[in-house]
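User: I'm putting together notes for a lab meeting next week and I want to include a structural view of one of the chains we've been expressing. I don't have a solved structure, so I'd like a prediction I can at least talk through. The sequence is below, exactly as it appears in our construct file.
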Amino acid sequence: MDREAFLDFLVRSVRDRTLTEQQATEFLRRFDAGEFDIAQMPTAIMPTNRDQYAALAALALLFRGQPSLSLAIKVRGLAALEQAFKERVRSLADILQRTGDVARWQSEMTSLISQNMLEARILGTGRLLNGQDLASLDSQINEQLAFLGRFADQIQISHLNGKPLSAAQVGARSEMYDRSRGEFYRGLTADHSAEGYVEDYIAVDDGGTCGPCLAAQSGGPYAVGDGPYPGDVCLGGGRCRCQRVLRYAPEEAAA
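Assistant: Thanks for the context. Below is the predicted structure for the 255-residue chain, given as structure tokens.
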């Protein structure tokens, strides 16, 4: 393992307050003494595979020449995406527990998050994504990958300390990186006329609904494409159950 990569890891960890300067100094001493046997360190943001983007975007061609999918079918597709994401992150957490390879886990999670968000946006729009769509999506993906990088550092520190996080802990935290719900609802209104329409944030009003989601609901309605999205503001991240719903309301839209 490269010493410079290890130093970058320590600097990030001190900056993010995962390690103190004293702890980082001790870790560096142990590294120089050859106590750590790590092939590769996690990185701040692992680059996504752009070839994968092109291949996945081609899935939208399936919509061409087909009748428009109903909202009910799309919502069922979203539920399938969310379930597949949950199962895969739990599987990756189990692999991490067996191998201890944090860099590999981060790489697999990077691909999974990118693919999941892209597929959800395509499902919502029902077409090939254009340059504006991809630019917006890139921003959303990179935000999640930055969070993932910090979590990867925390996992690596737990391994260096000899007290690795359990598969259950890693899996539960990983589920929160599912942002398919927000991307799906962004896609649904990407081509919809904003004239005369608003969007309501519909929170699931029960004991498990978080404060930010309830606040997002009370803060509406929102202009089409603006405001908070499910999963993005939710304290539960990928566990969010809320929706964004279009509503024709010319007076409210003009306000």
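A couple of points you could mention at the meeting. Strands lie at 197-202, 222-223, 243-248. Residues 207 and 214 are 11 Å apart (CA to CA).

User: Perfect, that's what I needed.
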